[in-house]
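REQUEST
  id: r-88c1
  op: predict_structure
  target: XdhC family protein
  payload:
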Amino acid sequence: MEQAILETLNLARAARRAAVTVSDLTGGVRVYLEGDDCPEPWREAVARALRSGRAGIVETGQGSFFLNVYLPPPRILVIGAVHISQALAQLAPVAGFDMTIIDPRTAFATPERFAGVDLIADWPEDALKLRPLDRFTALAAVTHDPKIDDEPIRAALSAGCFYVGALGSRKTHATRIERLRHAGVADADMARIRAPIGLDIGAASPAEIAVAILAEIIEALRRRDVASAGSEA
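RESPONSE
  id: r-88c1
  status: 200
  body:
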């Protein structure tokens, strides 16, 4: 692989930006970052690869091409060290997600309750200065406390996180929307918040709600808009 291609891929990796290489089986490699304007005949195939993370051969009128995909490891950031978070912490690694929990309430955020979990007992706005959000981060706010949840939700929308979910009823969410609007968040951005959080599967227990949240996160990752990633790298 050419040095310039390797450098582009390394920069994308450092910026946690997805990339696809399109290799002509007779020689020659092109690289497209998520959000680039990819020309035909590879546009649809590149979009599928970016969503699925799967490599493969594409047959076109111009010949055969091999697509290789480089996706940043997706991660879940949970705001709130609650029972739902305990269940989600067990499920997320099975589905291939790194997971971090942030909660300033030291009575909840204890190593005893979250053994082996990346746990930060601090205010989210402070913790996120060292753990910046990005497009391959899913944020789930589950404390039900506006003083803790609202700022990371706003930050996740601003960072373009592929998933932003918040616990609470529709009435609770309507109140949340008003607070965020007063904080200057655009309506179009607030429309991206999944609330009530999780797929509607009738979940009742914390474990079932965790399953519903994880399923919704996977859906958001695999169906995300790969054409509007921008050019943060």
